[in-house]
Amino acid sequence: MAPTDPGTTRDQPTPPISSVPTAPADSTPLGPTPADAFDALYVGLATALFRQTYLLTGRPNLAKESVERAFEQAWQRWPEVAVDRDPAGWVRAASYEYAMSPWHRLRRAHRRPDPQSAADPGSRALLDALLDLPPAYRRTLLLHDGVGLGLPDTAAETEASTAAAAGRLVTARAAVTERMPESTAPLSPDEESALLHEQLGTLAHAQPVAALLTPHAVRTSSENKARLWTQAAIALTAVLIGLAGLTMVTAPPRYEAPPSPAEQVGGVPPRGGPQRLTTQDLEMQRKLDDELVHGPARLVPQAR
Description:
Blueprint: H1 34-57, H2 60-76, H3 78-82, H4 87-99, H5 121-131, H6 135-147, H7 151-157, H8 162-178, H9 189-206, H10 215-250, H11 279-294
Helix pairs in contact: 1-2, 1-4, 1-9, 2-4, 2-10, 5-9, 6-8, 6-9, 7-8
C-alpha cells in the first residue's frame, strides 16, 4: 500500500508512481524509462516521506537526509525496487531505518536540537509525547494511525507479529492521548485512530518542508557514490593482491627458527665428576702402575 501524507484524508488518491511519456502520433508508443519511473516516485513520495520522517525524529535536517539517502539506495537497486510489490513501501522502510539508527547520536551535527516551528503548545506536546515513545512503538503508531496502513501491513513493515504490533499500538495510543490537552472523554479505538491521524497530519504540515534535492540530483549522487565505492573496492583488492605477491616473493622457502637471544643463567650447580689430580695423586698413580706391572708375584695358595 502506498503511504499517504499524514494530515490528509485516507480516501485521498495516492499520487501515481510512474507515468508514461506522451509519444508523437506517428511513432510507436514508448514506455517510461527507469529514470522516468524513479523521478515519478520521488516527486509523488518525497514530500510526504519527509513529513513522516520528521514525526519519527523531530529533526528536519535528519528527515531530509533520510529521505535523500533512501532514494539513493533505491536508485542503486532500482531493478529490484521497480519490480517490488510496493516500491513506495520499500523506500519508506529504508528511510525509517536510516532515520532511527542509534548511530546518529554519535554525530556532532545531532548533538544539538534542530530549530522547531511547532510553536503551538498542543502540537509541541504531541511531538514530545511521540518522541518519548520507544522507537518500535513510535514507528508502529505512525504507520498505522499516521500513514494509514492496516495492522498486518504495519506488523510486516516493523518485522513483528500482528499481536505484538497490536500491543505496541494500544500502548503508544494510550501514552500519547494521555498527554494531549483535549483527551478528556474516553474514545473508542476508531475514534482515537481518526483523532491521531488528524493531529499527526496537522503537526507534520506545521513543519516547513526542507529544500529537497531534485530527482536528477539524487540519481547523480547515487551514481557517484556507487562509482566511488566500486573504485575503492578495486583499489583495496589491488593492494591485497600486491601484498600477497610481495609476501610470496620475499618469504623464505622454509621456516627457520630464529636463534634464541643470549641470556645469563644463574644458580647452576658446579660441574660434577672427578676432580683434577694433584701432584701427589699423580705420583701415587704412577707408583701403583709400576707395582702392578713389575711388582712381586701374587701370593698363590699352596696345597698341603
